[in-house]
Amino acid sequence: MSVKTQFIRSLLDRLWDDYAKRVPYARIYQNMLAELGGTFVNDHIAYRSLAVTVNGHYLGIPMTKRIFDAMGFEEKGAIDFPEQKLFARYVQHAEPDFPRIFISELKVDELPAEVAALIRQSVADFRMVLSDADVEAVANLDRTGSIPEGLVERVARFFLEVPWSPPTEEAVRKVNEASQYGAWVLLHGYSVNHFTGYVNRHGVEAVDDIEKLVEELKRRGVPMKSEIEGERGSKLRQTSTEAVRVPVKVKDASGAIKEIEWTYAYMEYAERGYVEENGKQVLFEGFLGPQAKQLFEMTRLK
Q: Considering the chain, what is the average pLDDT of its residues?
């Protein structure tokens, strides 16, 4: 195993552990597979961002993608979501057990002017949590032959620490009326939005398709999305748990910090079907816009 592969595994494990502590449905799923003798593989991880520039730093897709570029992930496609004013790119690693990475951004300039201004004001004190030097160190891991002390944690912190001050509650609620996605990013920054269980890799009859998985999770008390996106036999089928709520920090009218509850993340599940490619049947590796659009909505505050 290469040094860079070791680094990627360590980073993904660190992010999964934090996510599973905050999203208990994820741990239920992982433990269920262990109990059934199945295999746990993540299909993809999703991240969100804002298409704005602060002090010369573009906060959209490239801010996150640069990390995965350094780890050797390659871009495989892009999807536009004009109704939701979102754009996404996804990348994939040659190692088959590494998850695909789906990174989206909110086209802030297309929102109503007042809402766009609130978003810009809320992130005006953005700070670079992860330095360019650390990203370069990741890119050079196989050349240097060792992982610098603390590098995994410094990279993980990019995904765990919101890189601007807590927004005002008033701003969050006004942004939420126009874009629940925008409000989510103001509160959670570059946090993992969801991990995705890869149904094809379960390897046990009890949960070898997405319908069986949904029923088993429901039996274990996991609240699930009301429908499965994608028809039986199609190239991609997806569903998810409900999103959990977590305490988040905001400022009140006086500027004092307080906590409110907001949606954070859900656990998603994907079952991939076969498509013909160069005369052969191969698993579909990409994403479908209409399905992703529905799953974006799972973090809407109810």
A: 95
